[in-house]
């Protein structure tokens, strides 16, 4: 009980949440462990090294965290990993980085920080006298410090820790730090560097060699050497050295690449502000949170995360997002409601410069600097977090790998039986103790295959190479297998399903509070000087870089349609008439009659409020040159813009007009305008919050953009749906536009219904509620049928949810969210964090989730999904595990195909390696019965010539060209796979025992001696006999049983390799894998040749004896029968009976199966067969294993689901709790 009370949680609520327990050294436990280590020859120390929990508990006693010397950390995710860390101590003048130092100040700075130490000896001594001892520990490049108040360790990440508002950053942190305070904070935050230490080769070698696999190899080599199996031991050592060297080279190369990538821009010279005017040059490694830096006019690579205090920056953030379109960053709000909000890096990312991103250029006041205050440094930065995720990746949680360990444990159990059998048999035969120990341990080394890890990795490596050939790059190879199990893929819309660029279809302006007829062009002379076109020409975030317009593709398209030009004047030009440097836009010259009119048409952009995904709008403040008053222009989602306009300025037909466009799949953007008060000065505008600007607007009209679906989209989605992979859309666009695109591309079929879940949060005394609205079905409307009539018996419906409703439902209707997720196909107006949340919800109902996006707003979802695919031109993006250089979704089926092929390859290789071990185990167990064994060169031939060649070539089958509905199994511990392995084991056992028994029944059989003459070779030619030996065979290797079992087992390895090396429907047929075919053909020919036509040199080398020709023919018959039985059992029992008729629950889980063969005799036979065998195997009423299938079955029985049209569900309504039990 005491231990559970002392368990604390750190990083609570975050992704890396951990339990922490305190321990202190215990002398008597350490003495016991020391004695145990000596007695076990060091094996106990290895065990404690592999199991940190045992290592700590075996040498320490539990204590409070404050008194702890060692800490035991355990992650709270599904992996529950253990980590051991040591507590360190340091001296500091204060306990927290943002504390005021309790020393009498000599000077007071404008931001109320004190200069505590101005090169004064007295102050230095005073500081030294007041130093306190602080405990901390390091884990995954983060420092955690002890906090006496909360009695726990906490992580200091940066300025956000003090929970400051935007206004507080201006008032308290805008003047910079003194050198003393900077040094003090550096004690806690360390140097500002993302230090990727490249480990020495010796350190990497020790870590690699201490891997349990290599320790087992070492144990095996020592054992084989004791048995005089020197050649085989040498071969294994050689293979292990090559494996270790390759592994070390790969690991070190990855470290060096990461180090070079990080180090290239990690240390730069920066201008640091000290007080109001003082600027000094310093190294970026000296920066700490709270420092104020100046961004040079020609830009820089950011060495830290910093928030802009004044000025504007154009930034390339491709390193973080994979999106190469430059982003405009503006200064943090300093007044109004926005300034009163607490600074949050995600919420205020449009004002934040992230570490590693490239500032291309800056815009600023004349004579003033572009300043930013440092928020985070080192590994706490966004770039640092990405590097940490690469340095310390989470284990791949895939059932295959967990089952592999269980299967190995089963093999160890089999080895245990052989171990006991060998000991008993040896004692009965009065074998020496040394021989008993060696031979019984030898059984264990035979049962666990030494080349298993390398063989299983080969399939993934081959798949990775094939993916690279089709333009898909992978930074997490282990996830390739997971792609083979994808059951659902989320797609972003714009740039993923549809074309990146939008084409301007037309505009619909408002005049006299009503819409005028649609106009297809805006560059006409009659429209050029209208407020509508002026809004299009100014309300954007474009900039010019090397003479080319750069910015959002939508902005570029809109601005190009106006025909206006953009200029960014130099500082010298603007200094003559105004202290601000505006961006100026001008209309085409041919539309301007004279110079005076030209000047009034020129518009200067005074201030920008960038587009925000959360707000779904952007705005600018402008001034027409020559005019005294300023104007505000607003652009954004029509619903949002209309809500910010004066009600009378919005046409009454607004909703109907908007719906008519969005139903057709157009993307619609609304514009608004407002004239500002004449008393507003240029500088005053810079301090206003956007809420004060974006209100009481005049509605100007709509811009209608055509977003064409990519040519490949519909075909790919159809292919995925045929393969029973569910597809859904997650977009930031309008709901009706998203539904229209979903229908056009085939996500929602023409005859299927769409139900919009429109949720409203609680207000006043009204609880939260959901209104269920049924969309008109275009297909049924075209046929003239009643749109209100919904046939739910067909089970043909989809839910559509927008971002606001999603937030309300997750908060107030948590019992409905899983039911909605099961049948929702369209998620519109979703913020980036909501996309991530949706992926987690889908994973919570056991979907294996893929996410495909452009990498810009999808980073969180791409990383959270089991398989994230970023469509980016970059070869490898840290935004997701997979990056496709082909900018359409055709990469998704390719990835699924290769994933399925790699997964099946992993199963094939694992089954083959398991059978190889068991076949060799059976041979050795049988030979132990006559106190014999396989010879050194026989082991060598089997392991090197047969097993290695086959294991690495059977992985070369390419993926099948089509995606099928059937999914590959995800578990080794499944009925069909276990049946496959067990039937082959029994087959091999039967035929080896048969050969072993029959050879002893032959008339010529006798206990073999060097003088034995079973081949009827004359005494005169005996000197040339292959049985000739110069010394007595102490190990009894040469005998008739050994020779017979060697031949039979060698062919068994080849038979199971071909049986397990399956092709269709997930891989190409094995006959197309020519390296495997050549290897099998060559080995079959060689073995048949040496068996039927013995060669003396080969027989002597392999330590096999001469047997009569009749027995060789008998062996051929046994081998042929073995192969036929193996093939028949695998095809008949596993492929037909089990896969096709019994274990069918994985098929057709995401929707109704459309099949034209439902009434065929074959289908009828399958149905009757399935019914009979399901009852036989007691699987008739077995519930599905995954949650989403259980939910689907339960919802079929639910009469109230889906809700009827126009039904309103309230948060307190019992109806909303229908699925509480689900």
Automatic annotation (TrEMBL):
Keyword Kinase: no
Cellular component aspect of the GO annotation: early endosome membrane; late endosome membrane; recycling endosome membrane
Record SMART domains: Cation_ATPase_N
GO biological process, alphabetically ordered: intracellular calcium ion homeostasis
Lineage, uppermost ranks: Eukaryota, Metazoa, Chordata, Craniata, Vertebrata
EC top class named in words: translocase
Residues passing through the membrane, by range: 27-51, 230-251, 404-428, 443-463, 907-931, 937-956, 977-999, 1044-1061, 1073-1095, 1115-1138
Organism: Crenichthys baileyi
Function: ATP-driven pump involved in endocytosis-dependent polyamine transport. Uses ATP as an energy source to transfer polyamine precursor putrescine from the endosomal compartment to the cytosol.
Cellular localization per UniProt: Early endosome membrane; Late endosome membrane; Recycling endosome membrane
Name assigned to this protein: Polyamine-transporting ATPase 13A3
EC number per UniProt: 7.6.2.16
Family from the record: Belongs to the cation transport ATPase (P-type) (TC 3.A.3) family. Type V subfamily.
Membrane topology, as annotated: Multi-pass membrane protein
């Amino acid at each position: 009980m005491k231990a559970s009370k002392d368990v604390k949680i750190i990083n609570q609520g975050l992704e890396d949440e951990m339990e922490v327990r305190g321990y202190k050294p215990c002398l008597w436990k350490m003495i016991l462990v020391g004695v145990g280590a000596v007695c076990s020859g060091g094996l106990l120390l290895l065990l404690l090294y592999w199991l940190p929990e045992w290592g700590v508990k075996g040498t320490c006693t539990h204590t409070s965290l404050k008194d702890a010397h060692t800490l035991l950390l355990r992650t709270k995710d599904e992996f529950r990993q253990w980590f051991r860390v040591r507590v360190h101590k340091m001296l500091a003048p204060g306990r927290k980085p943002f504390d005021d130092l309790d020393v009498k100040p000599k000077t007071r700075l404008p931001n109320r920080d004190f200069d505590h130490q101005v090169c004064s000896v007295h102050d230095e001594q005073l500081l030294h006298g007041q130093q306190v001892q602080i405990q901390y520990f390091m884990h995954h490049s983060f420092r955690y410090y002890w906090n006496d108040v909360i009695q726990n360790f906490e992580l200091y990440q940066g300025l956000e820790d003090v929970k400051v508002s935007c206004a507080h950053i201006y008032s308290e942190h805008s003047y910079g730090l003194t050198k003393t305070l900077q040094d003090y904070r550096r004690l806690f935050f360390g140097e500002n560097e993302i230090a990727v230490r490249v480990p020495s080769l010796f350190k990497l070698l020790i870590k690699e060699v201490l891997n349990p696999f290599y320790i087992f190899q070492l144990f095996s080599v020592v054992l084989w050497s004791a048995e005089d199996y020197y050649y085989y031991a040498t071969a294994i050592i050689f293979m292990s050295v090559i494996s270790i060297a390759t592994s070390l080279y790969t690991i070190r190369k990855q470290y060096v690449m990461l180090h070079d990538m990080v180090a290239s821009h990690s240390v730069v010279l920066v201008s640091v502000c000290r007080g109001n005017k003082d600027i000094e040059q310093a190294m970026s490694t000296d920066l700490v949170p709270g420092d104020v830096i100046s961004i040079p006019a020609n830009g820089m690579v950011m060495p830290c995360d910093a928030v802009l205090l004044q000025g504007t920056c154009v930034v390339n953030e491709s390193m973080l997002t994979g999106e190469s379109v430059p982003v405009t960053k503006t200064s943090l709000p300093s007044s109004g409601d926005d300034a009163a909000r607490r600074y949050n890096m995600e919420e205020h990312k449009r004002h934040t410069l992230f570490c590693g991103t490239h500032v291309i250029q800056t815009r600023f006041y004349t004579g003033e600097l572009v300043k930013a205050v440092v928020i985070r440094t080192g590994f706490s930065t966004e770039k640092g977090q990405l590097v940490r995720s690469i340095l310390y990746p989470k284990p791949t949680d895939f059932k295959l790998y967990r089952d592999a360990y269980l299967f190995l444990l089963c093999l160890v159990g089999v080895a245990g039986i052989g171990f006991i059998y060998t000991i008993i048999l040896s004692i009965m035969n009065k074998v020496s103790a040394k021989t008993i120990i060696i031979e019984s341990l030898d059984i264990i080394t035979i049962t666990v295959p030494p080349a298993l890890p390398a063989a299983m990795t080969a399939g993934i490596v081959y798949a990775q190479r094939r993916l690279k050939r089709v333009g898909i790059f992978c930074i997490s190879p282990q996830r390739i297998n997971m792609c083979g199990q994808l059951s659902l893929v989320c797609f972003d819309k714009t740039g993923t399903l549809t074309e990146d660029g939008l084409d301007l279809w037309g505009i619909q302006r408002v005049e006299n509070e009503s819409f005028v007829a649609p106009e297809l062009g805006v560059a006409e002379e009659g429209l050029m000087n209208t407020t509508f076109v002026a809004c299009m020409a100014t309300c954007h975030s474009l900039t010019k870089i090397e003479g080319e317009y750069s910015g959002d593709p939508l902005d570029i398209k809109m601005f190009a349609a106006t025909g206006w030009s953009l200029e960014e004047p130099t500082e010298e030009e603007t200094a003559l008439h105004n202290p601000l440097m505006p961006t100026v836009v001008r209309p085409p010259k041919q539309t301007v009659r004279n110079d005076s009119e030209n000047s009034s048409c020129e518009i200067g952009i005074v201030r920008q409020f960038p587009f925000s995904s959360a707000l779904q709008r952007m705005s600018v403040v402008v001034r027409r040159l020559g005019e005294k008053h300023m104007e505000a222009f607003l652009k954004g989602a029509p619903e949002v813009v209309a809500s910010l306009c004066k009600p009378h300025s919005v046409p009454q037909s607004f909703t109907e007009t908007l719906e008519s466009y969005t139903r057709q799949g157009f993307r619609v953007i609304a514009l608004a305008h407002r004239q500002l008060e004449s008393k507003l000065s240029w500088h005053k505008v810079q301090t206003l919050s956007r809420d004060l600007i974006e209100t009481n607007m005049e509605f100007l009209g709509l811009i209608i953009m055509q977003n064409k679906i990519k040519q490949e989209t519909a075909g790919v989605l159809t292919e995925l749906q045929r393969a029973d992979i569910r597809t859904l859309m997650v977009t930031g666009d309008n709901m009706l536009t998203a539904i229209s695109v979903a229908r056009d591309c085939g996500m929602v079929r023409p005859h299927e219904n769409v139900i919009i879940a429109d949720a409203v949060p609680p207000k006043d005394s009204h609880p939260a509620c959901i209104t269920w609205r049924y969309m008109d079905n275009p297909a049924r409307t075209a046929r003239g049928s009643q749109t209100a009539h919904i046939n739910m018996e067909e089970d043909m419906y989809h839910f559509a949810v927008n971002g606001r409703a999603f937030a309300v439902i997750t908060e107030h209707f948590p019992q409905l969210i899983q039911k909605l997720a099961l049948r929702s196909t369209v998620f519109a107006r979703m913020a980036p964090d909501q996309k991530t949340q949706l992926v987690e919800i889908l994973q919570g109902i056991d979907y294996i989730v893929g996410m495909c996006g452009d990498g810009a707003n999808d980073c969180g979802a791409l990383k959270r999904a089991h398989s994230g695919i970023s469509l980016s031109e970059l070869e490898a993006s840290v935004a997701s595990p997979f990056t496709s250089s082909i900018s359409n979704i055709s990469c998704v089926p390719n990835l699924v195909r290769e994933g399925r092929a790699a997964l099946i390859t992993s199963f094939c290789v694992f089954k083959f390696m398991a059978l190889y071990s068991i076949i060799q185990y059976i041979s050795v167990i049988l030979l132990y019965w006559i106190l014999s064994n396989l010879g050194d060169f026989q082991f060598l031939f089997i392991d090197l010539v047969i097993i290695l060649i086959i294991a690495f070539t059977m992985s070369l089958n390419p993926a099948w060209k089509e995606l099928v509905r059937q999914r590959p199994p995800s578990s080794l511990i499944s009925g069909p796979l276990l049946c496959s392995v067990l039937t082959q084991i029994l087959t091999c056992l039967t035929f080896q025992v048969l050969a072993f028994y029959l050879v002893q029944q032959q008339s010529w059989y006798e206990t073999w001696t060097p003088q034995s003459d079973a081949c009827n070779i004359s005494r005169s030619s005996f000197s040339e006999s292959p049985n000739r030996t110069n010394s007595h065979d102490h190990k009894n290797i040469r005998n008739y049983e050994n020779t017979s079992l060697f031949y039979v087992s060698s062919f068994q390895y080849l038979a199971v390799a071909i049986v397990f090396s399956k092709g269709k429907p997930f891989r190409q047929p094995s006959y197309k894998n020519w390296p495997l075919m050549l290897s099998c053909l060559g080995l079959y020919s060689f073995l048949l040749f040496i068996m039927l036509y013995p060669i003396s040199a080969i027989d002597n080398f392999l330590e096999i004896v001469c047997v009569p020709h009749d027995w060789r023919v008998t062996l051929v018959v046994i081998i042929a029968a073995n192969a036929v039985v193996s093939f028949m059992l695998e095809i008949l029992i596993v492929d037909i009976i089990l896969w096709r008729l019994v274990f069918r629950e994985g098929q057709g889980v995401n929707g109704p199966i459309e099949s034209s063969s439902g009434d065929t005799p074959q289908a009828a036979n399958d149905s009757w067969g399935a019914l009979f065998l399901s009852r036989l195997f007691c699987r008739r009423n077995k519930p599905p294993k995954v949650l989403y299938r259980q939910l689907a079955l339960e919802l079929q029985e639910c009469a109230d689901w889906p809700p009827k049209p126009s039904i309103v569900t309230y948060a307190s309504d019992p109806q909303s709790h229908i699925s509480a039990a689900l």
